[in-house]
Amino acid sequence: MNPLRTNGRRWGGNEGRPASVRGEFALPRTVTPALPPVEDFAGLPLDGRLLAALAAHGVSVPFPIQGATLPNSLAGRDVLGRGRTGSGKTLAFGLALLARTAGRRAEPRQPLALVLVPTRELAQQVTDALTPYARAVELRLATVVGGMPIGRQANALRSGVDVVVATPGRLGDLIDRGHCRLDQVAVTVLDEADQMADMGFMPQVTALLDQVRPEGQRMLFSATLDRNVDLLVRRYLTDPVVHSVDPSQGAVTTMKHHVLHVQGADKQRLTAEIAARDGRVIMFLDTKHAVDRLTEDLLGLGVGAAALHGGKSQPQRARTLAWFKNGHVTVLVATNVAARGIHVDQLDLVVNVDPPTDHKDYLHRGGRTARAGASGSVVTLVTAGQRRAVARLMTAAGIAPETTRVRSGEDALARITGARTPSGIPVEITAPPAEQRGRGPVVRGRRGPVPAFPRTAARRRPAGTAARA
């Protein structure tokens, strides 16, 4: 019996789905020569308060994309920047945005600067990264995203906000309701511009960009760029400074890539063994239903897991991420909503339980590990029907992975992923004591019978006790 199959349900599965390969983006030519890069923040015309805040946060040397783009963005030039995930893009555009906005004060409903992002998680990460620097120069910053009470966001805008970090849909809703105008926005940033240019976002993005000050500054940043961004560049950027730290193809040198050929009947057991490793891991699947099923099954097998997908409310998603970052749960089971905008220190493994269909998604999923010079591994589980599609995807991504045929319980699987046998004792995830305040459990494992792994390898626990994470 397959240990992770219950009531005939299966999770995962994009068997045989072809990989989508998009054309390489043709970088535009710059007419006006770019200013030379700097190797130290002190060499930039930055407000002393921003320099002091950088020093206070231990940021002493700019990343390459920061050193290259900041001299130009601080001078008011439009910027098109590409750098791998974890390369410092947020401060690359954030410091320029804050420096060029400092000293001004927004009127109610009329922000002065705007950062557009594709997901709630990325919006929160950008907000968290910029908040201490915004405070240093006395700028008011607000996050505008779906899944949160729109009334509170409307109240913040009515009170006056200098910088808005927003997802396009929610910002459009607030504008339609009369709570916000963009005609005073002088600095506009698109973060993860390639995803923003996808068909689902393009009408919303262009509608918003058409409302900001036409003579204002615009910056587009992403880890990958493709031809979908051409329209945005041609229509909204004027003589941009182009800086590409990394090509769209290629890998971070500190990241290892593994393709594991697995048997379909063994995939679920093998996945559970990887999840039971000593250390945190993000596991990606295609659908929210598959994510929920795998999370429930892992809890029932003794693995502290939590689900993250677009069907969760924003407070639920924020709480899940916080628990994963602080180690309260060790496995984050997610859809592509977690592929961008999540930074977790010392995360050394990402697993594609369902291989992505697009090479950009592969690069972004993998980019959750090996960040800022750290090392990490990306593992993709591939069944027989997926091999050709994954081979094409790896070629498009510029990846030459190590390919290994594995089965559950084998030494090779443990060597590559740290896999081990789950205890088989259901776990119950409850809020940490500081969060509980009288609340009951937030996530529970199954109470019914749990398919058992071999008891010889299971972690021992006194009879009659339940594991609790």
UniProtKB/TrEMBL annotation:
Entry's transmembrane regions: none
Q: Please give the SUPFAM superfamilies that the UniProt record associates with this protein.
A: P-loop containing nucleoside triphosphate hydrolases
Q: One Pfam family from the UniProt entry?
A: Helicase_C
Q: Which domain of life is it from?
A: Bacteria
Print the keywords alphabetically: ATP-binding, Helicase, Hydrolase, Nucleotide-binding
Q: Where is the composition biased (Low complexity)?
A: 439-456
Question: In the UniProt record, does the keyword Transmembrane occur?
Answer: no
| PROSITE patterns the UniProt entry points to | HELICASE_ATP_BIND_1 (PS51192), HELICASE_CTER (PS51194)
Q: Where is the Helicase C-terminal domain?
A: 266-412
Chain spans, region Disordered: 1-20, 431-469
Molecular-function annotations in GO = helicase activity; hydrolase activity
Q: Which CDD domains match?
A: DEADc, SF2_C_DEAD
Coiled-coil regions in this chain? none
Q: EC number(s) on record? A: 3.6.4.-
Start and end of every Helicase ATP-binding domain? 70-243
Similarity remark: Belongs to the DEAD box helicase family.
Q: What is this protein called?
A: DEAD/DEAH box helicase
Source species of the chain: Streptomyces racemochromogenes
